[in-house]
Design a protein that fits this description.
By secondary structure, this protein is an alpha+beta fold. It has 3 domains: 3-111, Alpha-Beta Plaits (2-Layer Sandwich), CATH 3.30.70.1050; 121-134 and 275-442, Trigger factor, C-terminal domain (Trigger factor, domain 2), CATH 1.10.3120.10; 150-246, Chitinase A, domain 3 (Roll), CATH 3.10.50.40. It has 11 helices and 11 strands. The longest helix has 34 residues, at 263-296.
């Protein structure tokens, strides 16, 4: 019925010229004319009785516009299928103002995914890393737990020291006037944690309950409230109580505070949790090495339209995440060259890996079955109380996007496992603490 002519414009860019026969144009035009005749209310004519010639004269441009819209909708998908192209982004449609004497024409600019020949996976070289839990890692966890499990015993005559918890009332003024956010009542403050303006906490050291302390500070240059940056403030502060920190004397006491029988049980639980983290870290470290090697072995050029679309989507995700965290993006962030280049690099890497991992799936015939999906849902449900796990799994199964994401993640894991099994890998080990430090630097 329709004719398509495909012209290559450049790498992964094509123009598809579509010709619709005059008979098809006439058919849809008459359908639009019939629809209009039933709806039109013109002086001197009963509904549905307006002569076609009169309708054409009165509504000619609209009839043509509606016919063109219906034609494109009716043949858009068929035209793409007929071209043999698989669009990577929404094709750009162009309807020429000047049409031929017979028939109807439109063109589409189609961007396709890049094609790539998969290299020999066995020639890839990278480290397969095992992240190990050391005794010092467990010690660090218990130390953090001991510091976090602090009780503060209020002492009436105690002079405040670093680490003590004070409860204070305060009223702040700038140039003699109170300001928004500068007032608080019965506010808990642990000296040394740095929660308040620099210099505030230090001026409370040595105070006792009942003291009135005048605190003078300047708001720092990076303060979140721009209208306060650099301004001098005075806080009239009343110390209501001073609490001395008390922690568990040993691991057994700490274990009892946390609901364990003894220190050995607490250590075993900490070790189990760290082993889970180390297992995930082992996969992530090896995954990154495998993907880096896969990228290095293939030269792929991303179509401009595809890259720009992904950059827009990536930028939107960044902005949405910032808003969810209560952060306002800087006004010039979207114009910042460093930010744009970071988004570009992230998008380009992600798109290239999508192409390559799809080729790995196809070449190795990788798929997942329902049992693997069920096992992953069972694993994820363990974070909830036992009585809520079935409810969680039922809810996840009802979420189409989340289920699609879960399947994609499982497929990627299978691809990584395949690459690792086929590639020329070198066994490497890394302490969990070292891996954690590396992640903090990246963030």
């Amino acid at each position: 019925m329709i004719q398509t002519d495909v012209k290559e414009l450049g790498r992964h860019e094509y123009q598809v010229h579509v010709t619709v026969p005059q008979g098809e144009y006439d058919r849809i035009y008459n359908e639009q004319l019939l629809k209009l005749s039933r709806q039109a209310k013109l002086p001197g004519f009963r509904p549905g009785k307006t002569p076609p010639a009169h309708l054409k004269q009165q509504f000619g441009p609209k009839l043509h516009e509606d016919t063109v819209s219906e034609l494109v909708q009716a043949h858009y998908v068929a035209a793409i299928e007929s071209s043999g192209l698989i669009p990577a982004v929404q094709p750009m449609l162009d309807i020429p103002t000047m049409q031929p004497a017979s028939g109807f024409e439109f063109t589409m600019q189609v961007t396709t995914w890049p094609t790539v020949d998969l290299s020999d996976i066995s020639k890839l070289t990278f480290d397969a890393t095992t992240v190990e839990v050391e005794t010092s890692d467990v010690d660090s966890v218990l130390e953090r737990l001991q510091k976090s499990q602090v009780k503060f015993e209020i002492e009436a005559e105690r002079k405040a020291e670093t680490g003590d918890q004070l409860h204070i009332d305060f009223v702040g003024v700038i140039d003699g006037e109170e300001f928004d956010g500068g007032k608080g009542e019965d506010v808990p403050l642990v000296l040394g944690e740095g929660r308040f303006i620099p210099g505030f906490e230090e001026q409370l050291i040595g105070s006792v309950a009942g003291d009135d302390v005048t605190i003078e500070v300047s708001f720092p240059s990076d303060y979140q409230a721009a209208h306060l940056v650099g301004k001098d403030a005075v806080f009239a502060t009343v110390v209501k109580s001073v609490g001395k920190p008390e922690t568990a004397e040993d691991e057994d006491a700490l274990a009892v505070m946390l609901g364990f029988d003894d220190g050995a049980a607490l250590r075993a639980d900490a070790k189990e949790r760290l082993d889970e983290e180390a297992g995930q870290a082992s996969f992530l470290a090896t995954r990154e090495a495998a993907l880096d090697a896969l990228l290095a072995a293939h030269d792929i050029s991303m179509p401009k339209a595809l890259l720009e679309q992904d950059m827009r989507e990536t930028t939107k995700r960044v902005l949405d995440n910032m808003k969810q965290q209560g952060m306002d993006p800087p006004a010039d962030m979207l114009k910042d060259e460093a930010f744009i280049e970071e988004v570009r690099a992230r998008s380009e890497r992600g798109l290239k890996l999508s192409v390559l991992l799809q080729k790995v799936r196809e070449s190795a015939d990788i798929s997942i079955d329902d049992a693997q999906v069920d096992a992953e849902l069972d694993r994820q449900s363990q974070q909830y109380p036992e009585e809520q796990r079935d409810q969680f799994k039922t809810w996840i199964r009802s979420q189409q996007e989340q289920m699609a994401s879960l399947r994609e993640n499982l497929l990627e894991r299978e691809c990584i496992a395949y690459i690792v099994s086929e590639a020329n890998t070198t066994a490497a080990t890394k302490a969990l603490s070292d891996w954690q430090a590396e992640q903090e630097q990246v963030q």
